[in-house]
Write a structure and sequence with these properties.
- 26% of the residues lie in helices and 19% in strands.
- It contains eleven helices and 17 strands.
- Strands 4-3-2-1-11-12 form a six-stranded mixed beta sheet. A six-stranded mixed beta sheet has the order 5-6-7-8-10-9, covered by helices on one side. Strands 13-14-15 form a three-stranded parallel beta sheet, covered by helices on one side.
- α2 links the parallel β2 and β3.
- α1 packs parallel to α2.
- The longest helix has 21 residues.
- The radius of gyration is 22 Å and the shape is globular.
- InterPro entries: Calcineurin-like_PHP (IPR004843), DNA_Repair-Maintenance_Comp (IPR050535), Metallo-depent_PP-like (IPR029052), Mre11_archaea-type (IPR032885), Mre11_Halo (IPR054879).
Length: 462
């Protein structure tokens, strides 16, 4: 019998709602998964991608992750992982660094055997490159086999990857597919194989209303019984409380009624999301947010869904001007390189003096990849649904009512660009984050130094 924890979409480093506390929450949630693994003495922790929210995590996030992985290593529990779209870089991957440190194993087409299970890996692959994929895996002599992959697979929401094709063309018969990218936990049986998502470990968008958690997967035909060879159980994590306050205003009702509804809830240290619908008088979102803050909320956001009289009807949200900008950027269908440039220009973590050099570096990284300069809306298939905006959401799946605006659920179930990509109500899978693995010239690497903004790249380590 082999028991593993299946997790993914931890998005360490995501400063949701621009809150440093929320940033720490994402690291703490990953730490809680590891603590459970140690307490339960499982055989391995399997991570299905998007360990980090950004391909250039800042140093505190990197060091915090290393500290968590050391706890796992000290307990003698292997950490097996694949690369997701959010953290993917053109050269070496972060999990490669952790492997060099003895803290992780990057899964691939060769089997990694733990107990009586052979684990294989399939990193995130942009839609435009999947036609060339050959699902060729080396043979194994274990009793069971599992494929760990990152992407939006059928039959789940936001799917763009044919699960039956993967299973049919693979030269290994898999007992389970342990997936990441869709932030909504789910499972289904496809062609006799269990396929499952554990969901994200923290709410990356407002659409992720269900509790967060992970899967405990047991490979044991005798213990499971019947025709099944795999048992999948979901376990909950104790994460930051989200309080959802729907307010439908009647005629002549306004701010007083909204305050009354907000006061009905315990807001202590919670993320409070107020959604206003109906009729009534104008409401100033900032006033409601200040009221919730005074009542003890960690973060408060107000979205007014009411329509206004104009030539056309549209929803108005004052929760975060950045949400409107992100929505417009998504409509533009920028290429992967364009999204890189947009992220650098609008990033809060890059000093103005460093923007020019950062943009130059990011464009240079893409020069060997012509597809990175193709617009997402030209039919090339580069754009996935995004996760609540991990501020772009679906980044894999990963959706679109962005976090600050009360947004999605995820398929990472949603895709998006780097920082605030998970807020939207689509999936987080981010094809825009290419996972090309060609390496840079060693001399070029040695000339690069750690950015002054605190972010680090693989070239600083590999």
């Amino acid at each position: 019998m082999t028991r593993v924890i299946h997790t993914g979409d931890t998005h360490v480093g995501y400063q949701q709602y621009h809150s440093p506390v929320r940033r720490q929450d994402f690291l703490d949630a990953f730490g809680a998964v590891v603590d459970d693994a140690v307490d339960d003495d499982v055989d391995a922790v399997v991570h299905a991608g998007d360990l980090f929210h950004d391909r250039r995590p800042e140093l505190p996030d990197l060091m915090g992750t290393i500290a968590v992985l050391r706890r796992l290593a000290d307990a003698g529990i292997p950490f097996l992982a694949v690369v997701g779209n959010h953290e993917s870089t053109r050269g070496g991957q972060w999990v490669d660094l952790f492997e060099r440190l003895g803290l992780a194993t990057r899964l691939g087409d060769a089997p990694t055997v733990v107990g009586d299970v052979a684990f294989y890996g399939l990193d995130h692959v942009p839609v435009s490159r999947r036609d060339d994929l050959e699902y060729a895996f080396e043979p194994h002599d274990a009793d069971y086999a599992a494929l760990v992959a990152h992407g939006l697979f059928e039959p789940f929401a936001h799917a763009d990857w044919d699960t039956e094709t993967v299973l049919a063309e693979s030269d290994v018969d898999f007992d389970a597919m342990l997936l990441g990218d869709n932030h909504t936990p789910d499972r289904a049986e496809v062609a006799g194989t269990w396929v499952t998502y554990p969901g994200s470990t923290e709410r990356a968008s407002a659409s992720e209303r269900e509790g967060r958690g992970y899967n405990l997967v047991t490979f044991d035909e005798t213990a499971v019984g019947g025709d099944d060879r795999v048992e999948i159980r979901r376990r909950a994590l104790d994460t930051r409380e989200f309080v959802f306050v729907p307010v439908e205003l009647g005629p002549e009702e306004g701010e007083a009624r909204v305050r009354e509804r907000v006061r009905e809830h315990d807001l202590a240290d919670a993320v409070v999301l107020v959604e206003i619908t109906g009729e009534g008088d104008p409401v100033t979102p900032a006033a409601i947010e200040e009221f919730a803050d005074a009542e003890g909320a960690l973060v408060a956001r107000v979205t007014d869904r009411r329509t206004v009289e104009t030539d056309e009807e549209f929803d108005v949200s004052f929760a975060d001007p950045e949400a409107a900008v992100r929505e417009r950027i998504e409509e533009m269908g920028l290429s992967a390189a364009g999204l890189d440039v947009d992220d650098a220009v609008r990033s809060d973590s890059i000093a103005d003096a460093n923007v020019r050099e950062t943009v130059k570096g990011r464009v240079e990284e893409r020069l060997d990849d012509p597809a990175a300069f193709v617009a997402a809306n030209d039919g090339k298939g580069e754009g996935d649904a995004e996760p609540d905006d991990p501020e772009k959401a679906s980044e894999g799946g990963e959706s679109t009512d962005i976090d600050d605006a009360g947004g999605e659920d995820g398929a990472d179930g949603e895709e998006s660009t780097e920082d605030d990509a998970i807020d939207d109500e689509r999936p987080i899978g981010d094809d825009a984050l290419d996972d090309e693995s060609s390496t840079d010239d060693e001399n070029e690497r040695s000339d690069r130094s750690t950015p002054a903004d605190g972010q680090v790249s693989m070239e600083d380590y590999l």
